[in-house]
Amino acid sequence: MKRTAILWRLASALVAAGFIAAWQLVANLKLVSPVFLPGPDRAWAALVRGFSSGDLAGKLIGTLEHMAYGWFAASIAGIALGALIGSSRMMRAYVAPSLEFLRPLPVSAIIPVAIAMLGLTQGMALFVIAFGAIWPIMLATIHGFAAVEPRLYEVARSLQMSRTAIIAKIALPSALPDILAGMRLSLTVALILSVVCEILAGLDGLGHWVLLSARAFRSADLFAGVILLGATGYLTSIAMSLVEQRLLAWQTAAR
Amino acid sequence: MSVVARLIEARAARRQKPLIAFNAATLRLGGKTIIENLDLQVRPGEFLCIVGASGCGKTTALRLAAGLYRPTSGAVTFEGEEITEPRREVAIVFQDYGKALLPWRTAAGNISLALEASRVPARERGARIEALLRKVGLPGHADKYPTEMSGGMQQRLQIARCLAQEPTTLLMDEPFGALDAMTRQGLQDEVLSLTQASETTVIFVTHDLDEAIYLGDRVIGLLPHPGRIGIELDVDLPRPRDQLATREHPEFLRLRRQLFDFIKATEH
Ligand SMILES: Nc1ncnc2c1ncn2[C@@H]1O[C@H](COP(=O)(O)OP(=O)(O)OP(=O)(O)O)[C@@H](O)[C@H]1O
Ligand SMILES: [Mg+2]
C-alpha cells in the first residue's frame, strides 16, 4: 500500500518533468514564436523577477483575498441555506424547482447584472464569486442533510434532544463529508471567478496582472501569472484535502 | 396496620398498576390497518416478549409504546398518561445497530450522546462512560469507532447508550436478530442480569420462540392483518434462568410446543 503510493508519486513527478522538458524543447526550437510562448526558463525568471522587484506578491495576495472572501461567504451562506432546505421535506419540495432553474445559469450571465447594480467594485467581485461558489456547497449540503439516516433522528427523539443539538450533533456531522466535497469544488470556482472579476473590473490581482502582461506582449510575465494561478489552485486543493482527512478521520478508521 | 405493612401494600398496588397500557389502540398507516384494538397491560418490572410472523405488527406495536407513532384511535399510556412523544425514561434498542450508532463518534462518544442529552456535566461523563462500557462487557473499547467493532459489540454499545439514559423501560426490537447463536446467548443472559437487578421493565420483540420463553415473564403472540393478540402465555419458570437447565425444563418445552403450534397456525 505504502510502496504503491510512493511509486504513484514518482510517476506523476516524472510526467510533470517530462511535460516541462517538452515545453522547453518546443520553446528552444521556436516552434511557436517566443513572443507568444516563453520557455520554462524565461517564465521562471519572470516569476522570480516579479516577486523580487515587481509587485507579483501583491497581486497574488489580492487574488487570494478575493478568492477567500468569496469562498467563505459562499460557504457560510451555502451551508446555512442548504441546511435549512435539506432538513425539511416541505422546503425541498417548494424550493427545489427554483434551484433547478437558477443552478444551470452560467455565472457569466449574472456578471453584467452585478456590474450594473454594484459597479466595477470589490463588492461586485465578492458578490459574483460568492454567487458562483455557493452552488456546489449548497447543493451538497442539501443532499447531505436529506440523506441523514432516519434512524438517527429517532435516536435523537428518544433522547429528547433539542433542535439545535440535533443539527449540531446529528445532521451536521452526518452531512460533513458532502459539505466538504462541495467546498472543495467551490474552491476552484472561486479562483476562476476571482480572475474573471479582476480582468473585467481591473481589480488588483493576478487576473489583472495576466491581462496587462498580455496587452504588453510580455509573454514571460503572463506565464508567470498563469503558473502562479495553477499553483494556487493546486495548493488550496491540497490544503482542503488535509482538512478533510483531519475532520473525517472516522471514515478511514474502519479501513 | 403497621407502617411497613402499608408500605408493602402500596408497593404491591403500584406493581399492579400497569406501567404501559394499550387501550383499544388502533393504528392505520397508508389506508391500511396495521394494529387493531390492541389491549395490553405491561406491569412495572415485567419482562414481556412479543412474537409473531413477519409483518404482523410487532415493530409497529413497539413504536407505539415508544411514542414514535401515535394511535389512530384508542390510547397508549405510560404511568396512566397518554404517550405523545418519546421520553428519556423509555429507551429503544433498535435491531439495526449499524444505523442507530453515530459512525463519526467513538464508543465513548456514542454513550456520551445520551449523557449530553440528560445534561450530565462533562467532568462526570468519563467515569459514567467507563462504568457503562464495563457493564456491557466492552471495557477498553472506548476509543474504537463503531465500524471497527463486530456486530455483537455494536449491539452491546447501543445497549450501553440506552442504559446511559437511565431508563425505567427498555423497548427492544429483535435486538439479537442479526447475531450468531453464541453471541446471542451471551447477550440474552447479559440483558437479563442488567434488567432483573434494576427491575427495569422490558418489552422484547423477537422471531425466536425459544428466546421469548427463555427471557420472558410473559409471551404475547400476535396475529397478522391486522395485528392483534392471538395468544398470551405466562412463563412460570424459575429465575435466574440458565441456558441449559431452563431450556430443558418440562414447562419450557410445554410452552415452546404451545407457541410453536400457534405460530404454525398463523402461517397460512
Ligand atoms: N409506514 C408504514 N406505512 C404503511 N405500512 C406499514 C408501515 N410500516 C409498516 N407497515 C406495514 O405494517 C405491517 C406490520 O409491520 P411491522 O414492521 O410492524 O411488522 P413486524 O411484525 O415487525 O415484522 P418483522 O418481523 O418482519 O420485523 C407490515 O405489513 C408492513 O408492511
Ligand atoms: Mg419488525
UniProtKB/TrEMBL annotation, chain A:
- In which compartments does the protein localize? Cell membrane
The UniProt entry's GO biological process terms, in alphabetical order, are: transmembrane transport
Membrane topology recorded in Swiss-Prot or TrEMBL: Multi-pass membrane protein
Q: Name one GO cellular component term.
A: plasma membrane
Superkingdom in the source lineage? Bacteria
- Which stretches are transmembrane? 7-26, 68-89, 101-120, 126-148, 185-203, 223-243
Sorted alphabetically, which SUPFAM superfamilies does this protein's record hold?
MetI-like (SSF161098)
Keyword list (alphabetical) reads: Cell membrane, Membrane, Transmembrane, Transmembrane helix, Transport
Q: Where is the ABC transmembrane type-1 domain?
A: 60-244
Pfam families cross-referenced by the UniProt entry:
BPD_transp_1
Q: Family, per the entry?
A: Belongs to the binding-protein-dependent transport system permease family.
Q: What protein name does the entry list?
A: ABC-type nitrate/sulfonate/bicarbonate transport system, permease component
Per the UniProt record, the source organism is Bradyrhizobium yuanmingense
Which taxonomic lineage is given here? Bacteria, Pseudomonadati, Pseudomonadota, Alphaproteobacteria, Hyphomicrobiales
From TrEMBL, chain B:
Going by the UniProt record, its keywords in alphabetical order are:
ATP-binding, Nucleotide-binding, Transport
UniProt GO molecular function: ATP binding; ATP hydrolysis activity
Reply yes or no: does the keyword ATP-binding apply.
yes
Q: Which Pfam families match?
A: ABC_tran
Q: Which InterPro entries match?
A: AAA+_ATPase, ABC_transporter-like_ATP-bd, ABC_transporter-like_CS, ABC_transporter_ATP-bind, P-loop_NTPase
User: Locate the ABC transporter domain: which residues?
Assistant: 20-249
PROSITE patterns referenced in this protein's UniProt entry, alphabetically: ABC_TRANSPORTER_1, ABC_TRANSPORTER_2
Purpose of the protein: Involved in beta-(1-->2)glucan export. Transmembrane domains (TMD) form a pore in the inner membrane and the ATP-binding domain (NBD) is responsible for energy generation.
Q: What family name appears in the similarity comment?
A: Belongs to the ABC transporter superfamily.
Q: What is the protein's given name? A: NitT/TauT family transport system ATP-binding protein
- Organism per entry: Bradyrhizobium yuanmingense
Q: What is the lineage of its organism?
A: Bacteria, Pseudomonadati, Pseudomonadota, Alphaproteobacteria, Hyphomicrobiales
